[in-house]
Amino acid sequence: MKPKAIDVKPLNNYELKIQFDNGEIKIFDVKPYFKFNIFNELKEKGKFKKVKISGLSIEWENGADICPDELYNNSIEQDGGNK
Question: In sequence order, which residues have a C-beta less than 8 Å from that of residue 70 and are 6 or more positions away?
Answer without folding.
Answer: none
